[in-house]
Amino acid sequence: MTTARGSAWPEAADFGQPPSAADLERWADADRAARPTRLARVRERLAREGLDAYFGVRGENSRYLTGFELRDGEEKVAGHSGQFLLSGDQLVILADSRYAIQARTQAPEARLENVYGNFPERWPELVGSLGARRVGVEAGFVSHGLWTRLAEAEPSVELVPVEGWVEEIRAVKEPAELERVAAACAVGDRALATLLPSIRVGRTERDLALELEWLIRTGGAEALAFDPAVLAGPDAALPHGAPGERPIVEGQVLLFDFGAQVAGYRSDMTRTLFVGEPSPRDAEIHELVARAQAAAISGLEHAVAEGTPILGRAADALAREVIEAAGQGERFGHGLGHGIGLATHELPSLSRTAPADALLPSPTVFSVEPGVYLDGEMGVRIEDLIAFTRQAGRVERLTRFPSEAVILPA
């Protein structure tokens, strides 16, 4: 078991600095320059599928294609603001009076339509202005009630469910997107390194989660990628547990799962630390998870070196085989990884349930996060983000915080 102790701990200075104002402006310029190509790809798909327009409701897709931004959770109060209609020659963005100025600023190329509480009534006029008779709808993000009201409002317009169109485009990352994910990783790396001296027996999961959140928000992030998980001892067996009042106990594992958001793009990392000397069993589980992750990453490296494609489910199998060989297969229930970008979980999928013919796209970025969870006792997960570019032979860890076991004094 490779470990880091005392002076070998990572420090904040070991990692990249927060993005500068020039970085933020450069990334914004890159998005503006890329949007015509992004829109053209959706329009090409419309033409191939024989559809006249695309109705988008997912916030990440709206930001990617139009530039309009909503904060996480804001869609619950924004109504239809930020949703959009795209045809072969027009882009329409919906925004009520609360968001009109923002929409004109962030999506200046779009036609703004003020919709507030009367969207189904406006539907015939909106699709009519596009000359649309067949409209693709992001079916996974539209309620049955809204679908029914739109269909009833204009029976002559066919609503066609579409899923994954924009998400598939987003899975292939532009250089400026990869830079932002890397910058978000660096924020997370620095935050955890800064937190290490504060971790001690008696502090609670919630205390550490709040301190970690503060370090992320003040360390270069515009927001959290998701609420941090800080889970001690038996709580670490909950893959998506929430921090509570459990105090840190000597000899137990302490699992951190968290991420930062920088210029819209996210990071996601998990580290399982020890406060005091781990038991032989816990040290063995950590070593097993580390070997499983290394096997998956080595397999990816071999694939790009050989110039051979690799399936998401094949990458999952590389790690799963290591854990199964150790008799812990039933305790690794989730997939190996997921894509990340404007959403914390997006394409591609690296799991047993990934499509049998789904090759990893390139360039892309995804997590590699095997875990072993002993119900009621402990859990270990190690998660890094990997930038994967088959054409350039690149398999690069964007998460720089060491994945070896960190043992803190009790």
Structure write-up:
By secondary structure, the protein is of the alpha/beta class. Strand 19 and strand 20 form a beta hairpin. The radius of gyration is 23 Å and the shape is globular. The strands form 6 sheets. Strands 5-4-3-2-6-7 form a 6-stranded mixed sheet, with helices on both faces. It has a 5-stranded mixed sheet with strand order 1-21-13-10-9. It has 2 domains: 255 residues, Creatinase/methionine aminopeptidase superfamily (Creatine Amidinohydrolase, Alpha-Beta Complex), CATH 3.90.230.10; 121 residues, Creatinase/prolidase N-terminal domain (Creatine Amidinohydrolase, Chain A, domain 1, 3-Layer(aba) Sandwich). It contains 10 helices and 21 strands.
Summarize the structure.
By secondary structure, this protein is of the alpha/beta class.
Please tell me what the overall shape is: globular
Query: What is the arithmetic mean of pLDDT?
Result: 95
Helix content: 25-40%
Number of discrete domains = 2
CATH-assigned fold name of the largest domain: Creatine Amidinohydrolase
Largest sheet: 6 strands, mixed
- Class from helix and strand fractions: alpha/beta
Please name the fourth-level CATH homologous superfamily of the largest domain.
Answer: Creatinase/methionine aminopeptidase superfamily
Q: Helical element count? A: 10
Proper CATH architecture of the largest domain: Alpha-Beta Complex
Q: How many angstroms does the end-to-end distance come to?
A: 19 Å
For this structure, the quaternary state is single chain
**Spatial order of strands in the largest sheet:** 5-4-3-2-6-7
Rg calculated over all Cα atoms: 23 Å
Which CATH top level class of the largest domain fits?
Alpha Beta
The low-confidence parts are none
How many E strands? 21
In what range is the share of β-strand residues? 15-25%
